[in-house]
Write a structure and sequence with these properties.
11% of the residues lie in helices and 35% in strands. The chain is mainly beta.
Amino acid sequence: MNNITKKLWVFLLVTGGIFAQQEKGIIGADNWLHNWTEFKPETVDYGEPTQILAGNITEDTRLYKRHVYLLSGNVFVTDSTTLIIEPGTVIIGDYASKGSLTISKGSKIIADGLETDPIIFTSNRSVKRAGDWGGLIILGDAPITKFGSGSVASYYNQLNANIYANSNYGGDNLESNSGILRYVRIEYAGKRIKNAGHFNGLLLASVGKETILESIMVSHCAGNSFEILGGEVNLNKAVSYKSNSNDFKFNYGAQCSLSNSLAVRSPYVSNSAGARCLQINSYDNKEEVDFTKNGTSVVAKNITLITDSDDINSNIRQGLVKEAVYVGHNASLEMNKSVISGFNPAVLFEDKIRINQENLEKIKFTDMYFNNCNGNIFVENNINNEDLENWYGSSAFFNVYSKSNNSETFIDLRNKRRPDFRLRINKIVASNEVDSDLRLIDEN
């Protein structure tokens, strides 16, 4: 083989590897986080409220960009009503009254922002903190595995007939449509509830698959950024940034597709109970679920999960970093072309899961990029993961492993206004050998 032929083969191998890796993690020819996201919301002045939203909204209502709205107390959209929110509108959750917005079963929200004019939900405090206000709750009539119907009544400050009537969810309509959330930001939500934990940034309970959910950012939330209970949900371009609790939590038979989405964790803000990027359960108490119905099932494709740390090894030693993905008993996960970077370990299975062919067929990791994690895939309370490493480390799954720091792994994490979390593939060719470092290619 002459030198020219050799060089051509090297070039094809290198470029082939490069382009293969372009599909891992969040993708796009351009950084789709530009324009509509905000990674420093504490520096933004949204103005003072000019209108108040309170009580029940019982007729079709439009919110206008020219106003700034204050959510006072628990606001419900009821009676099959549609709430329309114009692009660029700002809605501020009141700290003192634990402001929240609930779209009751049968009603809709049309919050269809623009990339250059997103809709904002945020805090009214001068110094903003996670948990300043409640959050956004959407209740639908799609199926859930709980016996009877579910209720979020425990989320509210006081219980009365109005709250009980408008806090139920669940049904048998997979095709149900609760509206549109697109180019929406939710900041500083997750108010603490006495004896009931925290609100979530966005709670989707029994939401049906006709609901449009894309380009949604939840930042600095004291509860879960996104929680999905039952229903059939398609989430695209969802961003969770520095949540105190889980970034994405799925439970009670949720059937969910999560695509081209991002979770960025900080080792310094997680709650004491620990938190994950993805927590996938089928129940909290098995006595309350109908096992004749499908358990929770999540298909996650082109997801980037990252711990934002300048010294991940030190943070892991200090116990500040947990696993990225937790899979519970009777749940299934299919994760493909995704990046998990900087966790301890990357994935944890609940200890009730037996490692056998049936269960491993329900939990799949293919074309993955595991980077800088203290171990890859384990069963809870078991330090011996040889069987799992042999299974998922097989070349048939095309998983790759690396020990690169964040600046080498991602395009531009240190841009404080508009970071770019796409995988830096122009210098990297990945190996599918377990625990091997990536080989760097000199551009020169």
